[in-house]
Amino acid sequence: MSNDETPVPAGWGQTRINKKWNGRCIRCNGVAIAGHRVAWDPNSGRPSAWRHINCAHPFDDKQPAAEVQPMLLQPPPAPQRAPAQPVRRPAIGPANGLAEAAVRTLLQAIGEDPMREGLQETPRRVVAMLREMCRREPFKFTAFASEGMDEMVVQSPIGFSSLCEHHMLPFIGTAAVAYIPSGKVVGLSKLARAVRCCAAGLQNQERITVAVADMIEKELQPQGVAVVLRARHLCMEVRGVKTEGAFTTTSCLRGAFKENGKSRDEFLRLAAQQS
To answer: What is the pTM of this model?
Structure first.
């Protein structure tokens, strides 16, 4: 008969084993805690055996004490912690339910009903819009031999748009990009692609300006590179200070454009004319 079917005799208990004894159940190898009952040896005052209450094996009242006592002084093993799992962030791809649910929560937070007719498709559209504006399209920076060309190459105005990283509102403007070749010239479309690539995602205008200059300098190693961005920021037109029509201009000048005043002035004049 199992111990669970037999009245607990005097000397059985759970409290004393928790306070005084450490060990493991001889049947299920479970740690001896509150879920174990103990058979006490009246002669030695030590537990002669224990079993887990939920152990599938019945307790054997005739279990020799010698088979149990060597386990009494073994401390329970330290709890094993599962290794930390890396945080998984959704990759840019098809819209997922988690992102759309977040948009619905946002709509509710501003007092809107996401189930009304005009808003039912809004979460899907917002997620698709953000993914499109944050997607950075890869491209090959095709370059050719300059064939002796060492005069300024200027391209403007290059239209671009981006998202303000502080308010997630758009800023829209134009870029003027120039470089002075040093053995290589680039396919003209690549200057516009460089601007749009660097503008993708949550950005600020200053970072985009420097990133475009860095890309051109890395790919062409020109004598000089110059970038000017001019943009309107909705984060200061439709909220906050609400200054409509204000333009912000940023520039990055490297090499000959920074060191040679004549080259710098010529570029800035051309950029101003075409903005």
So the answer is: 0.64
